[in-house]
Design goal:
Layout lengths: L5 H10 L9 H7 L8 H4 L15 H19 L5 H19 L3 H102 L32 H5 L3 H11 L11 H9 L7
Helix pairs in contact: 2-5, 4-5, 5-6, 8-9
Length: 284
């Protein structure tokens, strides 16, 4: 039968001559060990077994409890149930089993503790082994991934090196072409300056020596403009401007128009300047 108030009966039984009597389900399990209280996380994955309805519990009740324990151990191994929940469940299982087989009250607690400790130790050993296996497997996979990444990085570095080499070769080719173009531009500019210089001198020569004659500026042989920096000389627009040059400007004109010639006499400078720009020197 089920005791309506087994807590009131347990203490007298301990003190009476019937203390070795087997204590039934009502005392051992329903009062001393109610259904375990699971954490919220565990309750999402594992359902509690139903309360036994008979005294003592029947095999079907023990089987349901064992199934509950297996499910809880599975979630514990998957790290979705804390150790405290597993301990509570194992205590419940031990007391339920003791009630089913009619264990003596004084020995129930010791048997429960021993069973719980054995179960916890067994589960912890299995848990440690699985953790070790997972660590080894994780290290192996990590090593493989690192190896693959290193291989990919090495391949990327090699391809980047090849591309850099190709780019450098192309840059070298482009630089060579740029140098050629710059040389052509310099030659073209020199040719243009010489053409301009020759055209200006021919124009000046065709003007004669009248008072209304206006001459064009003739560049120096190196292409420099006499009126521009760094020379900044007065423009030679007529024979009068040649005569009006001071000694420093005359010497600068002669030195730039005749860079390889020795320094001429002072009286010859006006004629040399006029000759260089195409003006008739006999008029000076």
């Amino acid at each position: 039968m089920l005791y309506k108030n087994p807590a009131c009966l347990y203490e007298p039984l301990k003190q009476s001559k019937y203390k070795n009597l087997r204590v039934g389900w009502s005392l051992v399990t329903m009062v001393l060990t109610p259904l375990p209280v699971l954490s919220t996380t565990t309750a999402n994955y594992v359902s509690l077994p139903p309360h036994p309805t008979n005294d003592p519990p029947e095999p079907i009740d023990i089987a349901k409890c064992h199934k509950f324990i297996r499910n809880l151990e599975k979630e514990f191994n998957n790290m979705r149930a804390p150790e405290a929940d597993l301990g509570e469940a194992l205590v419940y299982e031990a007391k339920l089993t003791a009630a089913a087989i009619g264990g003596q009250a004084p020995n129930v607690t010791q048997a429960i503790v021993q069973q719980v400790m054995n179960a916890i130790n067994q589960n912890m050993r299995g848990f440690e082994e699985r953790i070790g296996e997972r660590i080894i497997e994780s290290e192996r996979r990590t090593g493989e991934r690192i190896g693959r990444l290193e291989g990919r990085v090495g391949g990327i570095e090699e391809r980047i090196g090849e591309r850099i080499s190709r780019v450098e070769r192309r840059i070298t080719v482009i630089e060579g072409k740029v140098n050629e173009i710059q040389g052509d531009i310099r030659s073209l500019k020199d040719s243009m300056f010489q053409t301009e210089r020759t055209a200006a001198a021919l124009y000046n020569k065709a003007q004669g020596d009248g008072p209304e004659v206006r001459l064009k500026v003739v560049r120096f042989p190196d292409g420099g403009d006499p009126t521009a920096p760094p020379h900044n000389l007065p423009p030679l627009i007529s024979l009068e401007t040649i005569r009006g040059l001071n000694d420093r400007d005359k010497q600068s004109y002669v030195a730039n128009y005749y860079p390889d010639a020795p320094r001429p006499p002072v009286l010859e400078r006006d004629k040399l300047i006029a000759q260089a720009i195409g003006a008739p020197p006999y008029s000076l």
